Amino acid sequence: DTAVSQTPKYLVTQMGNDKSIKCEQNLGHDTMYWYKQDSKKFLKIMFSYNNKELIINETVPNRFSPKSPDKAHLNLHINSLELGDSAVYFCASSQGTGRPREQYFGPGTRLTVT
Amino acid sequence: DAKTTQPTSMDCAEGRAANLPCNHSTISGNEYVYWYRQIHSQGPQYIIHGLKNNETNEMASLIITEDRKSSTLILPHATLRDTAVYYCIVRVRSAGGTSYGKLTFGQGTILTVHP
């Protein structure tokens, strides 16, 4: 009965490769997010989708492209991976109507670029 | 969103109440106070939120001062499993716009509960 799930949990790859991280939520939420937590443990939002529409796009390199095939899924594709992309990536979801609602986070995907 | 200030770290004895302060002196009337925590190697977990009244749920209590410039998260009976980084976040109330849904995490407070 996992609420927000991510795959894979760990991802080790070489510089220059292209990789994807998948996220699924079974909470019936209409808003999903990607956050990045770097080695200094700062957690920053990258993207947010509401009803499959991009509504938040922080200053993230174009190599990062989120895709939301439906409200329950938000995938993150990263092209030409760089060493600085190594981090833990968290997916989250919330019910977006009305006042701000609490966000539910996935377990994270630890990406290591070598 | 208003900036928050939290102590870097705190200790608490198991079974005692843990009181985590947060200063948000520039908070505006349309901003909520949210608390999340992150246990090591896990995703952040929502704890509680409030606007101006004190709030309580099964996890914690949130006390917001009358002028709303500070708040305290109270874990009434801390356990070892409550050891985590606790984040106090102030967020706009209204929906819509490019900042909608955005949570801005600071450094948080590292709470260590010891036996």
List the helices and strands and how they pair.
The complex is a heterodimer of chains A (114) and B (115).
Chain A: E1 4-7, E2 10-13, E3 19-25, E4 31-37, E5 43-50, E6 53-57, E7 64-70, E8 73-78, E9 87-94, E10 104-105, E11 109-113
Parallel strand pairs in A: 2-11
Antiparallel strand pairs in A: 1-3, 3-8, 4-5, 4-9, 5-6, 7-8, 9-10, 9-11
Chain B: E1 9-13, E2 18-23, E3 31-38, E4 45-50, E5 55-56, E6 61-64, E7 70-75, E8 84-92, E9 109-114
Parallel strand pairs in B: 1-9
Antiparallel strand pairs in B: 2-7, 3-4, 3-8, 5-6, 6-7, 8-9
Mean pLDDT of chain A: 90
Instruction: Label the overall shape of chain B.
Output: globular
Query: Could you tell me how far the N terminus lies from the C terminus of chain B, measured between alpha carbons in angstroms?
Result: 37 Å
Which percent range describes the beta-strand content of chain A? over 45%
Most extensive interface: A-B, 27 and 26 residues
Q: Main sheet of chain B: which strands, in order across?
A: 1-9-8-3-4
